[in-house]
Design goal:
With 423 residues, the chain is α+β, with helices and mostly antiparallel strands. Helices cover 42% and strands 20% of the residues. Helix 1 packs antiparallel against helix 5, helix 5 crosses helix 10 and helix 8 packs antiparallel against helix 9. The two termini are 45 Å apart. It contains 16 helices and 16 strands. Strand 12, helix 13 and strand 13 form a beta-alpha-beta unit. The strands form three sheets. An eight-stranded mixed β-sheet has the order 1-5-6-11-10-9-7-8. Strands 13-12-14-15-16 form a five-stranded mixed β-sheet. The protein has a three-stranded antiparallel β-sheet with strand order 2-4-3. It folds into two domains: 239 residues, BirA Bifunctional Protein, domain 2; 100 residues, 3-Layer(aba) Sandwich (Rossmann fold), CATH 3.40.50.800.
Length: 423
C-alpha cells in the first residue's frame, strides 16, 4: 500500500488548516460586506458543459472520464462556467443582478510547480445580470478590500480592456479567427519576455515587422474611456490610486472575456498573480439562450497562502483550543468536566484532557504541543476551596482564582481573539 498523496494533491494538518480557515473567513466577511451571497456547485458536471469554454489548453488540462452510468463527465475546472450553468438553470429564481461568491476546490491535470497544484481552492466573486462600469468598479474595489484585509500593504491591480486587442483585427493586422491565439501569446510576456513573445509570433507566421507592430501598438495604448470611467468610480469608493493601474499588455488567455480584464500582483511575491478576472458578457448566454452580462474574478487561494507566509501577515495565534482543563484523577474528573462545560457555555473553546490517569506533566506537554494559551488545573485543594489554578502558557505564569473569576479572566481573551481574527 502506497501511503502518500497523489502528485499535485495535498493533506492539510491542523496548523495549516487553521490558516486556510482564517483566510476563508476573511474573504467571506469582505465579500458579504459588499452584498455577495454564497453559492456551491457539484464537483462533477457533464463534459460537454465544460468543454470548449477555456480554450485548447484548458480542454487538455481537464479531468474527464466516463462514470458508471456511461455518462461523459468532468471535474470542475473553474467556478465561472458552473455558475453560468446555475444562472441559466435557475434564472427565474435569482434576483438580478445576482452577486455571488464561491469557495470550492477545482481540478486541473497540469505540471505541478510553485503555487500550482492539481487540486486547489478557488475563491470567486461575480456580479451577473448588469453591464455597467459601476459593477466592474465595485468588483475591483471588493478585490482591493480583500487583499488589504488579509494584511498586504503593497499590491497592484493591473487592468486592461479586451477591446484594446480588437483594434488589431479592425486594422487588418490580425485575422479575427487568429486573435485568440495572438492574445494567448501576448499573455506570456511576463513569463518569456518581449523577445520571447516576438519569437513566438514569428513562429506563428507573423513577420518581424508585424509582430513588432502588434506589441508596439499595445504598449503605446492610452487609457480607454471605459477604464477611465471605472477608475473614477474606484476613486469615489476610496480605493488608493497607487493600488491599480492601466496595463495594456495584460491579456489573460481565457477565451470568454469581453470587456475589462485584470490581475493582482503582490510586491515581493514572485510566483505570479494572486487574483484574476474580468467581464464575460457572452458566456452565460451560451446556456441561458439570451445575453446575460457578467463580471467576476477568482483568487488563487494557494498563492495567497504562500504570499501571506512570505510576508508574515498571519495573526500570531490562530489555535482553535483556547483552554485545556486538566484532570487530576479519575475521582475528580467530574469537577473538571463541570468547569469545561461552564467555559463552553460562554463560547470559550475548551478542551478536556481525556486520560484521567495521565500525569500533570504529560497534560501540560500536550497543551504545549497544541499551543494552547491557557491551562486550568483542578486538584484536591482547589476543589476544597472552590478555586482553580489558571496557567498562562505563553508567559509561564499562574494564579489561583475562583471559578467565577476564571470565566471573567478568559472572556477578554476570547473577545480579543475575535477582534483580531476580524481585522
Amino acid at each position: 500500500m502506497n501511503i502518500q498523496t497523489l502528485k499535485g494533491f495535498r493533506d492539510f494538518l491542523p496548523k495549516e488548516a487553521r490558516k486556510r480557515q482564517y483566510v476563508i473567513n476573511t474573504f467571506k466577511k469582505v465579500f458579504e460586506s459588499y452584498g455577495f451571497e454564497p453559492l456551491e456547485t457539484p464537483a462533477l458536471e457533464y463534459e460537454e458543459l465544460l468543454m470548449g469554454k477555456y480554450g485548447e489548453e484548458g480542454d487538455k488540462l481537464m479531468y474527464r472520464f466516463e462514470d458508471n452510468g456511461k455518462r461523459r463527465v468532468a471535474l470542475r475546472y473553474d467556478q465561472t462556467v458552473p455558475t453560468a450553468r446555475v444562472v441559466a438553470q435557475y434564472q427565474n429564481d435569482l434576483p438580478m443582478p445576482f452577486k455571488r461568491y464561491q469557495i470550492q476546490p477545482v481540478w486541473r491535470a497540469e505540471n505541478t510547480q510553485k503555487g500550482r497544484y492539481r487540486e486547489f481552492l478557488q475563491c470567486d466573486i461575480d456580479i451577473i445580470g448588469i453591464s455597467t462600469p459601476l459593477a466592474d468598479a465595485e468588483l475591483l474595489t471588493a478585490v482591493a478590500s480583500s487583499i488589504k484585509k488579509l494584511g498586504f500593504k503593497k499590491f497592484k491591480i493591473l487592468i486592461n480592456d479586451r477591446n484594446v486587442f480588437k483594434q488589431l483585427t479592425d486594422r487588418g493586422t490580425v485575422e479575427v479567427k487568429n486573435l485568440p491565439d495572438v492574445i494567448r501569446t501576448v499573455d506570456k510576456i511576463k513569463k518569456i519576455g518581449r523577445e520571447g513573445v516576438l519569437n513566438e509570433l514569428g513562429n506563428k507566421g507573423y513577420s518581424t515587422e508585424v509582430a513588432s507592430y502588434i506589441l508596439q501598438s499595445l504598449e503605446t495604448q492610452k487609457v480607454t474611456p471605459l477604464i477611465a470611467e471605472i477608475f473614477k468610480y474606484m476613486e469615489d469608493m476610496g480605493v488608493d490610486s497607487t493600488c491599480y493601474e492601466f496595463y495594456p499588455l495584460l491579456a489573460r488567455g481565457l477565451d470568454y472575456y469581453t470587456g475589462i480584464i485584470f490581475e493582482v500582483e503582490i510586491e515581493g511575491y514572485t510566483a505570479g498573480s494572486v487574483c484574476g478576472g474580468g467581464r464575460y458578457d457572452n458566456l452565460i448566454g451560451m446556456f441561458a439562450g439570451k445575453k446575460v452580462p457578467a463580471t467576476g474574478c477568482a483568487f488563487g487561494f494557494d498563492r495567497i497562502m504562500e504570499a501571506m507566509e512570505e510576508a508574515n501577515v498571519f495573526p500570531a495565534n490562530l489555535e482553535t483550543t483556547k483552554v485545556l482543563v486538566t484532570v487530576f484523577s479519575e475521582e475528580l474528573a467530574n469537577k473538571s468536566l463541570e468547569i469545561a462545560s461552564r467555559l463552553r457555555a460562554q463560547d470559550i473553546n475548551t478542551e478536556i484532557y481525556l486520560e484521567p490517569s495521565a500525569t500533570m506533566e504529560k497534560q501540560l506537554k500536550y497543551a504545549d504541543a497544541k499551543n494552547v494559551p491557557y491551562v486550568v488545573i483542578v486538584g484536591e485543594q482547589e476543589i476544597a476551596n472552590n478555586t482553580v489554578i489558571l496557567k498562562d502558557m505563553q508567559k509561564r505564569e499562574q494564579k489561583q482564582i475562583s471559578i467565577e473569576e476564571l470565566v471573567q479572566d478568559l472572556l477578554p481573551a476570547r473577545q480579543g481573539d475575535s477582534e483580531t481574527s476580524s481585522e
